[in-house]
Please model this.
Amino acid sequence: MIRFKKLDHVAIMIPVGKKDEARTFYGGTLQLKEIPGNHPRGAIWYEIADIQLHLVEEEGDAKISGRHPAFEVTGLEAAKAYLQSKGIEIAYSSKITGRERLFFRDPFNNRIELLEFE
Model:
C-alpha cells in the first residue's frame, strides 16, 4: 500500500540552453518565486501555490522524458516494497538533502516520483 500525502512538485522539461528564456517567462511574466540552490540536473525550482515547479533541460529528441509529478508519501520503504511486489522496477536519481526518493514508470512510460522528507 502507498500512503500518499500530497503532490510535492511537477517537473517539466525545457530545451537545452533556454534557461534564461525560462526564467524570463516563469520568474518574470508569471512572477513565480525562484527557490535558490544547486538543484539536481541544474534544474530551476519555483514556488507555485503550495507545491513546486521544477524546470529541467532535456534534449528535444529524448525517447523517454524526465517529465514527472512527485508525490510526498508516508513510509517510502513500505511503498517501495509494495511496488516491487507488483513487479514494478524502481529507479533512483541524484540525492537531495533532507529527502529520500525513488522513481518508477507506469505502463505508458510516464515517470513518477515518490518522496519522503527526513
